[in-house]
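Hi L., both proteins are below.
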Amino acid sequence: MPISRAEIATESGAKLINRLCKHWAHKLEVEQKEGEGRVAFEDGTCLMQADADKLVVAIEALDEEGLDRLEGVVASHLERMAGDEGLVIVWEN
Protein backbone atom coordinates (compact mmCIF):
# COMPACT_ATOMS: atom_id res chain seq x y z
CA MET A 1 0.00 0.00 0.00
CA PRO A 2 1.54 3.32 -1.03
CA ILE A 3 2.10 5.98 1.61
CA SER A 4 2.63 9.72 1.29
CA ARG A 5 3.64 12.19 3.99
CA ALA A 6 3.82 15.96 4.37
CA GLU A 7 5.17 18.21 7.11
CA ILE A 8 3.32 21.52 6.87
CA ALA A 9 4.66 24.58 8.69
CA THR A 10 1.81 26.05 10.75
CA GLU A 11 1.04 27.01 14.32
CA SER A 12 -2.64 26.15 13.69
CA GLY A 13 -2.25 22.39 13.30
CA ALA A 14 -4.64 21.40 16.10
CA LYS A 15 -7.26 23.86 14.84
CA LEU A 16 -6.95 22.52 11.28
CA ILE A 17 -7.32 18.93 12.47
CA ASN A 18 -10.41 19.88 14.46
CA ARG A 19 -12.00 21.63 11.49
CA LEU A 20 -11.23 18.82 9.05
CA CYS A 21 -12.49 16.11 11.39
CA LYS A 22 -15.74 17.98 12.01
CA HIS A 23 -16.14 18.61 8.28
CA TRP A 24 -15.65 14.96 7.32
CA ALA A 25 -17.40 13.37 10.32
CA HIS A 26 -20.85 13.60 8.71
CA LYS A 27 -19.89 11.24 5.88
CA LEU A 28 -16.69 9.40 6.86
CA GLU A 29 -15.35 7.44 9.81
CA VAL A 30 -13.36 9.92 11.92
CA GLU A 31 -11.38 9.47 15.13
CA GLN A 32 -10.07 12.52 16.92
CA LYS A 33 -8.24 13.29 20.14
CA GLU A 34 -6.12 16.20 21.31
CA GLY A 35 -3.82 17.21 18.46
CA GLU A 36 -4.48 14.07 16.40
CA GLY A 37 -6.99 12.92 13.84
CA ARG A 38 -7.68 9.92 11.65
CA VAL A 39 -10.04 9.92 8.68
CA ALA A 40 -10.97 6.71 6.84
CA PHE A 41 -11.79 7.25 3.19
CA GLU A 42 -13.13 4.60 0.83
CA ASP A 43 -9.71 4.04 -0.73
CA GLY A 44 -7.33 5.01 2.07
CA THR A 45 -6.64 6.62 5.43
CA CYS A 46 -5.37 10.04 6.49
CA LEU A 47 -3.53 10.46 9.79
CA MET A 48 -2.82 13.94 11.15
CA GLN A 49 -0.73 15.06 14.10
CA ALA A 50 -0.20 18.64 15.27
CA ASP A 51 3.07 19.83 16.75
CA ALA A 52 3.76 23.34 18.02
CA ASP A 53 5.04 24.59 14.65
CA LYS A 54 3.88 22.01 12.11
CA LEU A 55 1.16 19.65 11.03
CA VAL A 56 2.26 16.17 10.00
CA VAL A 57 -0.09 14.44 7.57
CA ALA A 58 0.29 10.85 6.37
CA ILE A 59 -1.91 9.20 3.76
CA GLU A 60 -2.06 5.47 3.07
CA ALA A 61 -4.03 4.30 0.06
CA LEU A 62 -4.90 1.06 -1.69
CA ASP A 63 -3.06 2.04 -4.88
CA GLU A 64 -1.10 4.91 -6.49
CA GLU A 65 -4.21 6.33 -8.16
CA GLY A 66 -6.02 6.49 -4.83
CA LEU A 67 -2.97 8.06 -3.19
CA ASP A 68 -2.82 10.81 -5.82
CA ARG A 69 -6.52 11.50 -5.41
CA LEU A 70 -6.36 11.62 -1.60
CA GLU A 71 -3.32 13.93 -1.69
CA GLY A 72 -5.40 16.36 -3.73
CA VAL A 73 -8.50 16.02 -1.56
CA VAL A 74 -6.62 16.48 1.72
CA ALA A 75 -4.48 19.36 0.42
CA SER A 76 -7.46 21.27 -1.00
CA HIS A 77 -9.43 20.87 2.23
CA LEU A 78 -6.45 21.92 4.36
CA GLU A 79 -5.95 25.04 2.25
CA ARG A 80 -9.63 25.90 2.46
CA MET A 81 -9.75 25.38 6.25
CA ALA A 82 -6.58 27.45 6.72
CA GLY A 83 -8.26 30.53 5.26
CA ASP A 84 -5.74 33.35 4.82
CA GLU A 85 -2.83 31.32 6.19
CA GLY A 86 -0.82 30.21 3.18
CA LEU A 87 0.13 26.56 3.62
CA VAL A 88 2.98 24.96 1.68
CA ILE A 89 2.10 21.29 1.20
CA VAL A 90 4.75 19.05 -0.35
CA TRP A 91 3.96 15.34 -0.44
CA GLU A 92 6.81 12.86 -0.06
CA ASN A 93 6.36 9.19 -0.93
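That was the first. Here is the second:
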Amino acid sequence: MSDDSRRTIPGLAPRKVSPKTMIARNRPAPPIGAAPAEGIEGAPTASERPTVAPEAPRRATAPRKPATALKSEQGRVNTYIDADTRSRVVATYKATAHLEGDESFSAFVETALLNETIRREQLHNDGEPFAASGKLQRGRPMRG
Protein backbone atom coordinates (compact mmCIF):
# COMPACT_ATOMS: atom_id res chain seq x y z
CA MET A 1 0.00 0.00 0.00
CA SER A 2 2.84 2.43 0.57
CA ASP A 3 4.99 3.72 -2.24
CA ASP A 4 8.63 4.26 -1.21
CA SER A 5 9.72 5.68 -4.57
CA ARG A 6 10.88 9.31 -4.70
CA ARG A 7 8.07 11.61 -5.80
CA THR A 8 9.01 14.09 -8.54
CA ILE A 9 7.32 16.52 -10.85
CA PRO A 10 8.00 15.60 -14.47
CA GLY A 11 9.60 18.33 -16.59
CA LEU A 12 10.85 20.35 -13.59
CA ALA A 13 14.55 21.22 -13.79
CA PRO A 14 16.71 20.48 -10.75
CA ARG A 15 17.49 23.38 -8.42
CA LYS A 16 20.57 25.44 -9.25
CA VAL A 17 20.79 26.88 -5.74
CA SER A 18 20.77 25.06 -2.45
CA PRO A 19 17.53 25.86 -0.58
CA LYS A 20 19.55 26.53 2.56
CA THR A 21 21.33 29.48 0.93
CA MET A 22 18.16 31.06 -0.39
CA ILE A 23 17.60 32.78 2.95
CA ALA A 24 19.97 35.76 3.32
CA ARG A 25 20.90 34.97 6.92
CA ASN A 26 22.17 31.52 5.84
CA ARG A 27 24.53 32.90 3.20
CA PRO A 28 28.17 33.36 4.12
CA ALA A 29 29.19 37.03 4.27
CA PRO A 30 31.61 38.00 1.49
CA PRO A 31 34.97 39.34 2.65
CA ILE A 32 35.06 43.11 3.00
CA GLY A 33 36.26 44.74 -0.19
CA ALA A 34 36.02 41.53 -2.19
CA ALA A 35 34.40 41.61 -5.61
CA PRO A 36 31.36 39.37 -6.06
CA ALA A 37 32.42 35.84 -6.92
CA GLU A 38 32.00 34.78 -10.51
CA GLY A 39 31.11 31.26 -11.43
CA ILE A 40 29.58 30.31 -8.07
CA GLU A 41 26.52 28.23 -8.56
CA GLY A 42 23.47 30.47 -8.27
CA ALA A 43 25.48 33.73 -8.11
CA PRO A 44 24.41 36.33 -10.67
CA THR A 45 26.86 37.08 -13.45
CA ALA A 46 28.11 40.62 -14.13
CA SER A 47 25.48 41.10 -16.84
CA GLU A 48 22.67 39.93 -14.50
CA ARG A 49 23.63 42.16 -11.57
CA PRO A 50 21.52 45.31 -11.32
CA THR A 51 23.36 48.59 -11.54
CA VAL A 52 22.91 50.66 -8.40
CA ALA A 53 23.35 54.39 -8.23
CA PRO A 54 25.53 55.62 -5.38
CA GLU A 55 23.56 56.48 -2.26
CA ALA A 56 23.09 60.08 -1.27
CA PRO A 57 24.68 60.92 2.08
CA ARG A 58 22.24 60.48 4.94
CA ARG A 59 21.74 63.09 7.60
CA ALA A 60 22.32 62.17 11.19
CA THR A 61 19.24 61.43 13.27
CA ALA A 62 18.48 60.15 16.70
CA PRO A 63 18.37 56.38 17.26
CA ARG A 64 15.84 54.69 15.00
CA LYS A 65 14.40 52.00 17.19
CA PRO A 66 12.11 52.99 20.06
CA ALA A 67 12.31 51.04 23.27
CA THR A 68 9.66 48.35 23.41
CA ALA A 69 7.06 49.24 26.00
CA LEU A 70 5.19 46.74 28.13
CA LYS A 71 1.74 45.83 26.83
CA SER A 72 0.09 47.64 29.76
CA GLU A 73 2.03 50.84 28.92
CA GLN A 74 1.09 50.88 25.23
CA GLY A 75 -1.64 53.01 23.72
CA ARG A 76 -3.69 52.34 20.63
CA VAL A 77 -3.65 54.71 17.65
CA ASN A 78 -6.29 54.53 14.94
CA THR A 79 -5.79 56.37 11.68
CA TYR A 80 -7.34 56.40 8.25
CA ILE A 81 -4.97 56.36 5.29
CA ASP A 82 -5.34 55.92 1.54
CA ALA A 83 -5.63 52.27 0.45
CA ASP A 84 -2.68 52.60 -1.96
CA THR A 85 -0.51 54.08 0.78
CA ARG A 86 -1.49 51.29 3.17
CA SER A 87 -0.66 48.64 0.56
CA ARG A 88 2.72 50.25 -0.06
CA VAL A 89 3.48 50.42 3.66
CA VAL A 90 2.49 46.80 4.26
CA ALA A 91 4.52 45.62 1.25
CA THR A 92 7.56 47.55 2.50
CA TYR A 93 7.18 46.07 5.98
CA LYS A 94 6.88 42.52 4.66
CA ALA A 95 9.88 42.93 2.35
CA THR A 96 12.20 44.52 4.92
CA ALA A 97 11.10 43.43 8.41
CA HIS A 98 13.72 40.67 8.57
CA LEU A 99 16.44 43.06 7.38
CA GLU A 100 15.54 45.87 9.78
CA GLY A 101 14.76 43.68 12.78
CA ASP A 102 11.14 44.82 13.14
CA GLU A 103 9.38 42.71 15.77
CA SER A 104 5.93 43.44 14.35
CA PHE A 105 4.00 45.76 12.05
CA SER A 106 3.17 47.85 15.12
CA ALA A 107 6.89 48.25 15.85
CA PHE A 108 7.46 49.29 12.22
CA VAL A 109 4.71 51.94 12.42
CA GLU A 110 5.99 53.14 15.81
CA THR A 111 9.50 53.56 14.39
CA ALA A 112 8.17 55.50 11.39
CA LEU A 113 6.11 57.79 13.64
CA LEU A 114 9.03 58.33 15.99
CA ASN A 115 11.38 59.19 13.11
CA GLU A 116 8.92 61.78 11.74
CA THR A 117 8.43 63.19 15.24
CA ILE A 118 12.19 63.57 15.71
CA ARG A 119 12.49 65.25 12.29
CA ARG A 120 9.79 67.80 13.13
CA GLU A 121 11.21 68.46 16.60
CA GLN A 122 14.61 69.17 15.05
CA LEU A 123 13.11 71.38 12.34
CA HIS A 124 10.61 73.36 14.40
CA ASN A 125 11.65 73.13 18.08
CA ASP A 126 15.49 72.99 18.21
CA GLY A 127 15.37 69.22 18.70
CA GLU A 128 13.38 69.48 21.94
CA PRO A 129 10.14 67.53 22.44
CA PHE A 130 6.97 69.60 22.17
CA ALA A 131 4.93 70.04 25.34
CA ALA A 132 1.92 67.72 25.59
CA SER A 133 -1.34 69.63 25.24
CA GLY A 134 -4.15 67.22 25.91
CA LYS A 135 -5.97 64.77 23.68
CA LEU A 136 -6.28 64.81 19.91
CA GLN A 137 -9.29 66.54 18.44
CA ARG A 138 -11.86 63.98 17.34
CA GLY A 139 -13.25 63.92 13.83
CA ARG A 140 -12.36 66.05 10.88
CA PRO A 141 -11.31 69.67 11.41
CA MET A 142 -13.94 72.31 10.65
CA ARG A 143 -13.25 74.07 7.35
CA GLY A 144 -14.86 77.39 6.71
